[in-house]
Amino acid sequence: MQKEIDQAINVLQQGGLILYPTDTVWGIGCDATNESAVKKIYDLKQREDSKALICLVANDAMLERTIEEVPDLAYDIMDLSIKPTTIVYDNPKGVAKNLIAEDNTLAIRVASDKFCRYLINKFKKPIVSTSSNISGRPTPKSFGEIDKVILKGVDYVVNLQPEQKYAVPSAIIKLSSDGTVKVIRE
């Protein structure tokens, strides 16, 4: 696993794209602080850059460095969730401008699988995590379902099997600074 982490970090540091197993589905990732790398993902997915992408962090401390103020309720949601849960926060900071939604929010998940946590911890910055499909097409449930355009469009494919057997996208909850909670995807 260490070799895969080192290879992925090398690509991320150079502004490249990786294809990697996450705690949910196979994801396309890049340095979440690098605007040109984020643009490459939008281009590869043939997705409008007005549609926000998810960002992964390694732990609560990295989350707190990426969001102006993390509501206490966010920690309760993360602790009580039975599946990976992405939370949309107000007022992100320190990430690429084209990663932030028009309403000044950012979707972030604290990674729960070992590979992602190690990778992000060692990289020391959040990474983008978006499903490995062309925009508008179904999310691949396994590596074998990933479109060849995606496979050819990334700079490195991590050679590890995902920890979970059945790939399911994360739940998404929007948590506004004013205390409003909205479930976007269960």
From TrEMBL:
Its EC number is 2.7.7.87. Residues 2-186 form the YrdC-like domain. It comes from the Bacteria. It catalyses: L-threonine + hydrogencarbonate + ATP = L-threonylcarbamoyladenylate + diphosphate + H2O. PROSITE patterns: YRDC. Signal peptide: none annotated. Keywords: ATP-binding, Cytoplasm, Nucleotide-binding, Nucleotidyltransferase, Transferase, tRNA processing. It holds the Pfam family Sua5_yciO_yrdC. Its main location: cytoplasm. It is an enzyme of class 2 (transferase). It is found in: Cytoplasm. The keyword Oxidoreductase does not apply. NCBIfam families: L-threonylcarbamoyladenylate synthase. Belongs to the SUA5 family. This is L-threonylcarbamoyladenylate synthase.
